[in-house]
Design goal:
Largest sheet: 3 strands, antiparallel
Order of helices and strands: HEEHEH
Oligomer: single chain
Strand content: 5-15%
Number of strands: 3
Helix content: 25-40%
Structural class: alpha+beta
Radius of gyration: 16 Å
Number of helices: 3
Mean pLDDT: 93
Length: about 70
Amino acid sequence: MAAGPKMKTHSGAKKRFKVTKSGKIKYRRTNRIHRLTQKSTKRKRTSRAANYVDKSNVAEVRALLPYK
């Protein structure tokens, strides 16, 4: 019997999210690209650290990354 069509990974999601070994979904915080001189040091420092997707949104992101 032939298999059905394969699911495609969402192109935007694969560029923005990574799945860790423990299964958490990691992403990069915003506001770190340009115009850094006018942003406070505290704001830049906190956005340096990686962040994890909230449990309320995990199912939504996993649907975009079917093979992870």
